[in-house]
Amino acid sequence: MVPTPTNKAKITVSLKLDNPKLVDYVRVCEIRHRYSEHLGSGVGIFSVPWLPPLRSWFLVSVELPRPANDALNVESFSSQMPSFLHRFRGIGDVHFERLTVSTSDRPVFAHSLFGEKIIISTTNAPIQGSFNVTSFLELTTSNSPIEVDLGLHDLSPPRYSTCDSVNQNRWEYHWPVGYPSVELYNSKGPIRATANLTRRFDPATIHRESHRYHSDEDEDDQCRSHPTKQWTPNTSHSTELPLTLEDPTRIEHTGGRYALTAKTTRSSISIEFDTDPPVNHSLTVDASTYFGGINVGVPVTYEGYWKVKALSAYREVVHGNCANCTDPSGEKRERVLRVDRRNAVWEEGVVYWGRKEDSVEERLDGWVEVNSMFGRTAIIV
Q1: How far apart are CA 90 and CA 130, in angstroms?
Q2: How far, in Å, CA of 269 to CA of 87, rounded?
């Protein structure tokens, strides 16, 4: 898949064959959506079930239009082509609302993919490249590595309240289902991922949602003694958090919410995060394998619970990410690693910024769990 300077998408199908008889068994056809051609169209390659073993190669090139002054948004792209290698290149400024790729026995390479929902699956071949998502990414293969750079971008507004929490303790939440979540599945193949967490949202969303959740009657009942101050959002561009609003509005998890799952068998898992993640975020990591090792290094800004399921001789919790780092919030707190419970097959605890004597359970929302039977397992906090 490559860009094209025209305003129309272009699909080219090339065929290389050693025996001209192949054209008697294969058809290349235009296909359209079963209900309406306005919902999508494309190209199908069909062969008879008794296709003889003739040497041939198909090359399908999809060229997307390149708008002059704006990024291209593609509502849906789908490819179901077994035994076809897929390569995405030169489309870093193209946004896919939904992209699905299904193949087998051939790799998938993504120089740069950006979308809301991306699902890619293959077998017996690697998946490699750079993937940026705002909602959901699923990569599945077997017997080959998954090696990816991940960008998880939370565009949703933060949790907020227009009431004073001390007197009313009434919180309203707005977390859409689509906060960025990544799922990596493999079998007998390693998973190696580096993730970058970013936080951007349109501040006007808070203004809109406050009207949605709080009617005049609600304000009278919930915030009678705390009148809401006027706030005019800047809707001209997205704003990076942290964002300060006038009281009594309060913000939680200004760094966003993220989830990452990685599962394989008879192979290893390695997950790392970039060195500049957002402060005050909520992160969930679930990594599991057996007959393989796991190494997970959480961000220095991570605060939350951790759990390691592995035999005591093969597990390790390393307080190593913060040997020389300082409090990312600027409050001069120390990095605290606490072990709460342990036995022969698991141990768990918390990690946070603060003091050892602090009671932090109520404010911690992160969860990192690694599970490996008969493999060395480490969490680096």
Answers
A1: 12
A2: 24
The alpha carbon of 265 is separated from its chain's Cα centroid by a whole number of angstroms, namely 22
Burial class, 95, CB count within 10 angstroms (exposed 0-12 / middle 13-18 / buried 19+) = middle
The residue assigned the tokens 């995060």 is 273
Strand partners, 288: 263, 371
The pTM score is 0.81
Tens of pLDDT, residues 114-167: 999 999 999 999 999 999 999 999 999 999 999 999 999 998 875 544 444 433
User: CA–CA separation, 75 vs 131, rounded Å?
Assistant: 17
E strand or H helix that includes residue 117: strand 108-121
Q: How far is CA 131 from each of CA 55, 63, 153, 154, rounded to the nearest angstrom?
A: 34, 19, 11, 14
Over the stretch 163-215, which tens digit does the pLDDT of each residue have? 444 333 322 333 334 589 999 999 999 999 999 999 875 444 333 333 333 33
